[in-house]
Structures are given as C-alpha cells and as structure tokens.
C-alpha cells in the first residue's frame, strides 16, 4: 500500500486537467493526463485529497471542475464550440464560484500535466507571492517545437519557448523519456536559464490496452493481412512516406490492407487525406478512420497483422506501447524516444526517412511469418508499468527521501 510516510503526511494535490475537461480529445496527452489524475486519486485514497482543476482564462485563475467539466472529463465529450447566451452567463457565474482564492494552493502540490501557452504562464511567474509554500510539478511530454521548429508555426514556437522557460520555476519536471529530458535540459542550457530538477519516468500501459488484459493474449488476425498505423495527421508523423512504401508493395502485387487511424490536426493533414483518396481511387485497399473510440481501437489492434509507427520524432510513442501490449509486432523508428519505447523487444526498428527501407521491412513481416511470430513472442514477454506502479513512482519522484 502506498502512503506519504516519509514524504510529509497531510499533503494535498491539485491536478491541472484543463485540456481534457474543456475540450475532451483522444490524443496522447489528454488521455494520459486523465489517467494520471485517476491513478493519483486511487493511490492516495484515504491518505491525501487529489483535486482536478481547470484554468479559467477570463479570471486568470485556476478553478475546481464544474458539473459539465466532470462529465466531459469523464466521458471525453467536448463542449460545443458555440454556446447560447444563457449558457455563457451561467458558466461565467459558476466559474466565479469555483475559482480558487489567493493562497488556496499554499502548502499543496500543483501538478501541471498538460502543455500550456495561455495565462498560466503569467500566473506561474507570480504564483509564489500568494502561495509561498506551494510546490509545482510538471509533466514534460516532448521538445519537438524546440528541436524541430519548422514543424510548428512561429506563434506556436514562441508560446512553447515561454512554456519551457516557465518550467524552470517548477520543483520537479517529470519527463516522459530520456530524449524529452535531454531536449529540455539542452534548451535551458542554451538560453542560460537555471535548470529545474528533472526525473525520467516512462508512461505506463495505456488504459485502452490495460483493460484488455495487457499483452497476455494476442488475438488471431484476420485472414487478409492488415497493417495498422495509429497517429494524428501532422507532418512529423510521416504518413506520406508510409503511404509511399505501401504503394511500392501494392505495385509488386503483395496483398494487404492498410488502415490509418488518426485525427486531422494541421494543414499538412490535408495532404495525407488527399493521398489516401488518390490511392483509394486507384483501387488500393486503404482505409482512414477518424474519431475512433476505445472499443473500435481495441478491435483494430486485435485484428492487425502488425503495426507501423512511421513518426520521425516523438516525446514517447504511445501507439508502440499499445501495439506491444496487444501482442502485435511494431515497425518503428530507430532513434530517439521511439527507440527507448522499442527497447526490450517486439519491434523492428527502421530508418523512417527511407521509403525503400520501410517498404523492405514491411515486406519482411508480411512474407516471413516466422520473424513476425518471433517479435510477437517478444512483445508478449515484456512487462509494462501499471498505472498504480506509475503513480507510486511519480510520487517518489516528487518527494525524494
């Protein structure tokens, strides 16, 4: 049983879940933010309160979740973009009632589990004035905007740099991979900023796979080989190169169905959607699924022959973990955080900047069942952190003895 003995018993924890409480979403960060809150609440039940918060920009303050926030936080239902006048007035009234007052966070831990570039930056710069005993922890997901600025807009880059600077004021920054920590620390050093204390803690098994019993049983794939790719549609995810590799194999007469699952998030996503339409127009067995829920995603993993994760740069790479947890071999990159997740077996690393190399790796797994089965055995043999184990390690990282 986990307690706070030795870490100061009477601790209070507030977790910023603004993104998933206000906007819902099934992306990696909101999903893990939601699960982190739940794991901390379960682990500390009867020992310390764990309270979810949203940032209320009109007030310039954090606030406790309202009724609809709880519904959206739990069920991933986003607010409608256009609310009625009555709804807006009601929200404004309840917002003021829920807002935290000056000093409410004093002596507590505030866990910043998401990326932010709004008024929280200004708030963080002066937070110690009203709450001098408050302790702040942040989860740092990736430094892609810092290392590959050409993948983000100038406005987003400016906001992310301010976010990285704000993290220097934290008591602890929990990085999801060695790569993300190295990118952040190098950026701090290049700017001459003081470095906050950092810890590396890889994400545990996502709930979508944990609820399926982990990697204990790899379901039999369908007779037709199915290649599954799960990731949002943005430039660094490298879908166009993956589709090019698929086309090479289809031209050779190799039979398989390719399934792409992901939300369109940027203008570059339009290029992927257009290429999918072009290939489908040629009669290629290709499918794009947007807005897949957990049940749909579980079914797709179970029916996949293997998965492909062609991303060029990641802070972690949750779809790799999900694939392995379902006992499926995964083709993924051979460097950075992706290589960290691949450590331990079940993956076939490849240079994801080389379409010919990716096509060859796909060909090997499609035409060599023995090699694919070897990787599946490795995947099923891997141990993944549970959320309970993660929460205990998270708390230990916040409050080292």
Task: Describe the structure concisely for a colleague.
This protein has helices at about 20-25, 30-45, 65-75, 85-100, 120-130, 145, 155-165, 180-190, 205-210, 240-250, 270-280, 295-305, 320-325, 335-340, 355-365, 370-380, 385-400; strands spanning about 15, 50-55, 60-65, 110, 135-140, 170-175, 200, 225-230, 255-260, 285-290, 305-310, 330-335, 345-350.
The number of domains is 2
For the secondary structure, the number of strands is 13
Mean pLDDT: 86
Radius of gyration: 22 Å
Query: What do we call the CATH homologous superfamily of the largest domain?
Result: Glycogen Phosphorylase B
CATH architecture of the largest domain: 3-Layer(aba) Sandwich
In helices, the fraction of residues equals 40-55%
Number of helices: 17
**Regions with pLDDT < 50 over 5+ consecutive residues?**
76-83, 85-90
Q: Give the CA-based shape.
A: elongated
Helix/strand-derived category reads: alpha/beta
The CATH class of the largest domain is identified as Alpha Beta
For the biggest sheet, the summary is: 7 strands, mixed
Distance between the termini: 18 Å
